[in-house]
Amino acid sequence: MRMTMIEAIRNAHDLAMGADDKIVVFGEDVGFFGGVFRCTAGLQEKYGKNRCFDAPISELGIVGAAIGMASYGLKPVVEIQFADYVYPAYDQIVSEAARLRHRSGGDFTCPLVIRMPAGGGIFGGQTHSQSPEALFTHVAGLKTVIPSNPRDAKGLLLAAIEDPDPVIFLEPKRLYNGPFDGHHDQPIVPWKKHELGEVNEEYYTTPLGKAEIVRVGMDVTILTYGTMVHVAQTAASEAGIDAEIIDLRTLVPLDTDTIEASVKKTGRCVIVHEATKTCGFGAELSALVQSSCFFHLEAPVTRVTGWDTPYPHAQEWDYFPGPARVAQNLKKVMEV
Amino acid sequence: MRMTMIEAIRNAHDLAMGADDKIVVFGEDVGFFGGVFRCTAGLQEKYGKNRCFDAPISELGIVGAAIGMASYGLKPVVEIQFADYVYPAYDQIVSEAARLRHRSGGDFTCPLVIRMPAGGGIFGGQTHSQSPEALFTHVAGLKTVIPSNPRDAKGLLLAAIEDPDPVIFLEPKRLYNGPFDGHHDQPIVPWKKHELGEVNEEYYTTPLGKAEIVRVGMDVTILTYGTMVHVAQTAASEAGIDAEIIDLRTLVPLDTDTIEASVKKTGRCVIVHEATKTCGFGAELSALVQSSCFFHLEAPVTRVTGWDTPYPHAQEWDYFPGPARVAQNLKKVMEV
Amino acid sequence: MHKAFHPLSLHVPEPGCRPGDEPDFSEFVIPRAGEARKPAHDATAQSMRDMAFSIVRVLNKEGEAVGPWAGDLAIDQLKAGLRHMMVLRAFDARMLMAQRQGKTSFYMQSLGEEAVSCAFRMALKDGDMNFPTYRQGGLLIAGGYPMEMMMNQIYSNAADPIKGRQMPIMYSAKDHGFFSISGNLGTQYIQAVGWAMASAIAGDTKIATAWIGDGSTSTSDFHAALVFASTYHAPVVLNVVNNQWAISTFQGMARGEAATFAARGHGFGIPSLRVDGNDYLAVHAVAKWAADRARSGLGPTLIEHVTYRAGGHSTSDDPSSYRAKGESSAWPLGDPIERLKTHLITLGEWSTERHTQAETEVMDEVRAAQKAAEANGTLTSGKSPSSRDIFEEVYAEMPPHLIKQRQEAGY
Amino acid sequence: MHKAFHPLSLHVPEPGCRPGDEPDFSEFVIPRAGEARKPAHDATAQSMRDMAFSIVRVLNKEGEAVGPWAGDLAIDQLKAGLRHMMVLRAFDARMLMAQRQGKTSFYMQSLGEEAVSCAFRMALKDGDMNFPTYRQGGLLIAGGYPMEMMMNQIYSNAADPIKGRQMPIMYSAKDHGFFSISGNLGTQYIQAVGWAMASAIAGDTKIATAWIGDGSTSTSDFHAALVFASTYHAPVVLNVVNNQWAISTFQGMARGEAATFAARGHGFGIPSLRVDGNDYLAVHAVAKWAADRARSGLGPTLIEHVTYRAGGHSTSDDPSSYRAKGESSAWPLGDPIERLKTHLITLGEWSTERHTQAETEVMDEVRAAQKAAEANGTLTSGKSPSSRDIFEEVYAEMPPHLIKQRQEAGY
Ligand SMILES: Cc1ncc(C[n+]2csc(CCOP(=O)(O)OP(=O)(O)O)c2C)c(N)n1
Ligand SMILES: Cc1ncc(C[n+]2csc(CCOP(=O)(O)OP(=O)(O)O)c2C)c(N)n1
Ligand SMILES: [Mg+2]
Ligand SMILES: [Mg+2]
After folding, report:
1. Percentage of residues in chain A with pLDDT exceeding 90?
2. What's the gap in Å between the CA of D253 and the closest CA on chain C?
3. Is ipTM strictly over 0.85?
4. Is residue D169 part of a domain?
5. Do C227 and D254 touch (CB under 8 A)?
6. Burial letters for D262-299: b for 16+ Cβ neighbours within 10 Å, e otherwise?
7. Within an 8 Å CB–CB cutoff, is residue A50 touching chain D?
8. What's the rounded mean pLDDT across residues D282-301?
9. Are residues D178 and D301 in the same domain?
């Protein structure tokens, strides 16, 4: 059945809640209203206010309470309204959720999913556009997941819900309705008309820690995730470069085998993400690739990222690493 | 005059406060008590409770209030008791301090120094040992500084205080009293007996963004900062490797010229830091070095770091990247 | 020994009515205008505890100003206040339309809450600093900030003082005592306290005001602000604008359906009161009282402005999907503009005709400003801020890595 | 029109006395034992407002139990309570000495506050969950958790249930209703509320208790906990242990020298009261009252335990550099052990001789536990946890990158 990413996420919640009454869903406006992006619409009506409810505007409270619930034995799946608003909960995530199993010698655990819409492309300015994944991948004890299409969003979310540890689940909001490729001046194809909008209605999981090669190629490996998976595909086509594109899907734990095999084959590597460059996840990818594929590399590993500035409103498309910027870097790497 | 790092920091505060009555110093226990590490001892007595005072236990409140003060026109220098406790203030730092100048078109600015003892080596377990620098270096709008000796601590702190933007100032607490080189079973040389404990009593600044080559060598470049500067020196000597060691001092902005020149000369690069590996600042350094020195590198850039786990209590010395682990990696890199 | 206990269950607050229900404010207790006493400036929190559970109201149903909080404002000031609110409403209407026309990306209006920011502003002095949310545009309008500048910001055009960097209505106007608005709820509250502490440290006479919505009182910043304000006796007025709704959740979600937002101040020994936020005179009187307290070194005051968000939360939501139809018109405290208008008419200083005429004038004024602003461009056409501006002012001085990135970007 | 205002100045709270001063608690108002009324379980916050400004006390100067809060406990329970407190004190003394002997890195004692955690624990049931700070070891001792296990943790030895991973006294004992202690102040407070919400969601009958220090009420987590507890009527008892000091700052720094910590609950409609934290009977009675409320679905209660931190903050500080000499002995609520002992003697159920004998027994018990624990090693000698354990339990299943790092580490 064709679904938007929103519908796929909603469907994942629905199946999970139906299968396991330990699963509770809450966050700001997620109850009666069904979430500002409608990802939880219908759940309160179906499962009751005890299982899906609104929360006060305290991201700290939402995550802190969820940790308590998880330690009781429930499985909270909470929504942070925008990834840009996760910082008030940062202490609870890094000091508590991430370390509870370890610090208590396994006495207490913290199975918890923290969902949040991330990324730019919607004229959201600096507070509705951020990609904070690197702030989570640096923290031991967390897993970090970013789907790029409805099929994966559902499977990865169900896998995250099944996972016995805290999972940060970043949803590229620009992909909620269709596979945005960075050509902001062109209408997007809705997921309903796209094959990756085809989502099995049954319960299924997509394992965490497994990347997907979304385009096979010989000349250069593109490592990317989220919205940039689509931008990279368009850029490669437009540049006429035989790129192999890897959708990482999970950043921690990372599928290093798939990455290594590909870069050893192509000898070149370009990393693409929306987040700011310095200490972004691209830095880690670059460090890993140059270390594991050193003798296979024919050109420096190159990063195409958001600039090291706040995300601007009016100049969104000068900030966003769109297909032109990606293509230009692909060409440059091929020239080395 | 010989000073410990604590005395040097105290002296910097004293000189700054004496020179500019816009400077106010506050934080938990920094007033009457003079700070749990005594870095602000005597300031309240000398400058009064209006200029140096205790704060309630709210890191959010300390930084949030400091931002308000900075926007008024004062220059707050605040202490977070341990870097491990900075996360409650993380939102105020990344969403507010870091972006205020940019988001207001320069209408409001945020000259602010946030000091915090960081790093391990004192049996502090997971909540008194962290090195969170990468969580700041990823954020545009912040500068991040880490001194490795009393002389620099004073000069860098005064430069940070003069800086018109928010500066994160991480103090390697294991270096407060002497240049700890990782040999935890040996007594440390106190700063009073070490030449880098020699601190000019006058007001001086050490510019932000300039690294220092602390050991000249031909075989391999070691990029490091904080406590690891001393560990690396010992490791190089013990391994008998002619390493060039660069004390970065400022992580953002980074002195890429010094780094590039050195790695182009040696052809090898080892990065050493205490923080967890994945997405640590070492990832950024590795990405930069392989990109700018690609054709000069004879071996993969190697990172020696804390493990990707919480910082343990009893197993501190198995976690801490001490001289043996650094030396072993230096040898490995030399063998390529 | 212990008695048996029943299984527990979770209580989840829900508003009295949702779409399909009949709006019902019968449980909302509204004291009569003029009833509330006016404590001395140095009253303790304890001695005026009741005022956090009552509502200061000045304008009665007949449009008369009654009670101890009345009598502060001259006719000219009242007329100016009416004008400010009318301008703000017209401004909102035009900008809402501009957003619908695609001239910008987003808009948030103050509909129904105009008195709160417009009246409050008139109790402040030049040099005082407001730390607002996105629904206090009236602080700028009443403070004489040019509408055209506000529009330049909304349009992210070439004359936008913040260079297109932020979403619409995220104004910054230091010279007009208006702190840069943040998209992150709550953060400004403790910053306001810090600014006020700085004023006290510097031996200045200026005060700060902090603004927050009912929903946002749940944020951590709210607590930090109360702690710091009470500990250091900061010269700050802490305002909570209780407009009954966060986005889709009613104020009971943040309030726990108990006490009041004003009562949050009591645990900190902060004198706290509630005011009829749709009563221009009451807001002004309470604001002046609190500002004087702060300026006299008597420390913080917490004011809960009881009002109603008559419009949607923003242009991104449709309130009919979570609010009962007609709830806005059932709101018992009425409309702030209508009420001040009636008061002036009652005083014989105003008429329906003059009001209609003023409406036209105001609309012309807003239109003229809009025209001038649009000459500088809109988000989607005409002149726009430079792309170089992305890289400027991240730091005072551009560091090498940003110079490099800017070159890479080609600007 | 405006009157002229004087320059503002910053108020910074300071304790009444610092080193060199004469301790003075004359301004500390202490209600007489037996004076406080006992409200019905379903009393509203409003109806028992006064109790946040008074102090529930049961034991009078003569050692008699008086008033409506007295009478709950049988003689055996009182004797057990006395024993628990004595064990805790002896335990602390031994571990403090062990730290000084270099057997571990750090220690924090409960000296002077023993009644708070020991008495409270006896009002709970198996299955309830405590979210403690580092000064509620009495919850474990009174709950029958083996001292040897606590010591294994303190020594980070081979039998440490948390495998040497945390600093001393950061216990975790799920089966004994004791949540893993965090070094980050405050975080447990909202987690306790979440746990209680979970119990309610699951239709369970268990309740949670949250613990926080006076200084730590300034944290954001404290506010979040109050918001969530009041919004969802969570079955939780929110305890504030006001032991007068944070590290070097007195409780007025967090409290703003106004109201009380208990009064913080009023803004949330949470029934709140203060109790004499050095009065075993009072703490127990109040705890039981609050626990019953929670279990009956009546929601949260906030309890401020008024006590005194008689020792240093931890082994890392020397209180004589910031506290007046003799402040501890001047503390007007006395010593919890002495007071319960006197009560039992007054009842004719105890004597000085039996007490001395009990002290010996207790010390033997503690010594025996210590010997057993030391057989498993201390931080600096003997058996220790494995270095492999660094990498275990970061996740339920070790991911590839950690397997690699563990190999690199050579374990
Ligand atoms: C930290 C944070 N969390 C969530 C949001 C998303 N958000 C924007 S406005 C809003 C509702 C605010 O309600 P209220 O405080 O009552 O203010 P009002 O809009 O009624 O003026 C929410 C949840 C945000 N901007 N910041
Ligand atoms: C978030 C955080 N900030 C600072 C600290 C450092 N610290 C540890 S204990 C303490 C004082 C706590 O005082 P209080 O809450 O009164 O508890 P008490 O020690 O009196 O039991 C401080 C500041 C910390 N552990 N966590
Ligand atoms: Mg609101
Ligand atoms: Mg205390």
Report:
1. 99
2. 6
3. yes
4. yes
5. yes
6. bbbbbbbbbbbbbbbbbbbbbbbbbbbbbbbbbbbbbb
7. yes
8. 98
9. yes
Q: Taking residues C328-349, what's their average pLDDT?
A: 97
Range of the domain at D394: 387-411
Closest among A310, A290, A291 to A301, alpha carbons compared = A290
Contact D200 C10 (CB under 8 A): yes
| Residue A182 DSSP one-character state | S
Atom number of ligand 2 nearest to Cα D254: 16
Clarify whether residues D410 and D363 are in a common domain. Answer: no
Provide the β-strand partners of residue C236.
C208
Does any CB of chain B come closer than 8 Å to the CB of residue A99?
Answer: yes
Could you tell me if residue C101 is inside a domain?
A: yes
CA angle in degrees (0–180, nearest 5) for D126-D129-D133:
130
What domains can be seen in chain B, in order of their start residue? 5-197 (3.40.50.970), 212-335 (3.40.50.920)
Residue C216 Cα, ligand 1 centroid: separation in angstroms?
6
pLDDT tens for C121-143 read: 999 999 999 999 999 999 999 99
Q: Three-state DSSP class for B243?
A: strand
Q: How far is the CA of D213 from the centre of ligand 4 (A)?
A: 5
User: Whole-angstrom Cα distance, residue B332 to residue B330?
Assistant: 5
Question: Looking at A128, A138, A183, A230, which residue is catalytic?
Answer: A128
Of A64, A66, A74, the CB nearest to D221: A64
Give the model confidence (pLDDT) of A89-108 as tens digits: 999 999 999 999 999 999 99
* D164 and D179 part of one domain: yes
Return the partners of chain A (3 or more C-beta pairs < 8 Å): B, C, D
In the predicted model, what is the mean pLDDT of chain C?
96
What SS3 class is residue A255?
coil
Tokens linked to D262: 């208990």
Max CA distance (Å), chain B: 60
- Give the per-residue pLDDT at D1: 39
| Residue B273 confidence (pLDDT) above 90 | yes
B128 a catalytic residue: yes
Q: Minimal Cα–Cα distance from C149 to chain D, Å?
A: 30
> Is D38 within 8 Å of D69 (Cβ atoms)?
yes
Statement to judge: residues C213 and C348 lie in one domain: yes
* Contact at CB, D201 and A74, closer than 8 angstroms: yes
Q: Which of D372, D329, D313, D380 is nearest to D96 (CA)?
A: D313
Q: Is C258 part of a structural domain of the chain?
A: yes
Q: How far is D269 from chain C (nearest CA, A)?
A: 5
- Which residues of chain D have a CB within 8 Å of the CB of C270? 256, 258
* Same domain? D290 vs D397: no
CATH number at residue D242: 3.40.50.970
From A99, B142, B65, B238, select the one nearest C234 (Cα to Cα): B65
Between the CA of C169 and the centroid of ligand 1 the distance, in Å, is 14
What is the structure's pLDDT at D72? 80
Ligand 2 proximity of D255 Cβ (cutoff 6 Å):
no
pLDDT per residue as tens digits for the range C30-63? 999 999 999 999 999 999 999 999 999 999 999 9
Residue D371 resides in a domain: yes
Residue C298 shares a structural domain with residue C208: yes
CB of D199 less than 8 A from some CB of A: yes
Tokens of B23: 């400077």
At residue B132, does pLDDT exceed 60? Answer: yes
Residue C216 beta carbon below 6 angstroms from any ligand 1 atom: yes
Question: Between chains, do A283 and B283 touch, taking CB under 8 Å as contact?
Answer: yes
pLDDT tens track for B74-109: 999 999 999 999 999 999 999 999 999 999 999 999
Q: How many domains are there within chain C?
A: 2
**What is the C-alpha R_g of chain B?**
19
Task: Let me know whether D216 and D356 are in one domain.
Answer: yes
Ligand nearest to the CA of D215: 2
Name chain C contacts of D218, Cβ cutoff 8 Å.
223-224, 227
On whether both C374 and C394 belong to a single domain, the answer is no
Question: Can you tell me the distance from the alpha carbon of D200 to that of C407, in angstroms, rounded to the nearest whole number?
Answer: 58
Interchain CB contact of C187 with B (< 8 Å): yes
> Does the pLDDT of residue C200 top 80, yes or no?
yes
